[in-house]
Amino acid sequence: DEVRLWTASGADSSEDEPWCRLAPCQGSGQITALAGEPGGARLAAGASNGAVHLFSTVVTGGSDKPRALGKGLQHPGSVEALRMPCRGYLTSLCQGVGEGERWLTLWDLRQPNPALQLSVRPAAYSCFDAVAVGASSSASAS
After folding, report:
1. How far apart are alpha carbons 64 and 69 in whole angstroms?
2. Is the pTM of this model over 0.85?
3. Which uninterrupted H or E stretch holds 127?
4. 44, 31 in Cβ contact below 8 A?
């Protein structure tokens, strides 16, 4: 499986060929979630094995395609949702070990470990949305 990405101008002109194709990294399983950073500098791709891979979308060194950044961020289970509410931060929702368990994680992308990780149960997506929106509001207020 691969994820195909088009630029806004490519989508408007009905081009059949995508701007780029992202294949899961070796051993990552299927891509299950995508998020773009405001301003478009980075793209995060979550996978069924719990890995989140970051890609730079900035054109440098003659390449006009996304390039992988670092080793990726590991989660305990399949990644269900990703958001990049502001520059340098990622929120993720993934499956946990127990039945129905979900992990809500806030990442400061300058650090290799999560800034915050919470076990959430029934209202996981409501919690995820609240943290993603709250992080975005806090960043724009500072």
Report:
1. 15
2. no
3. helix 124-141
4. no
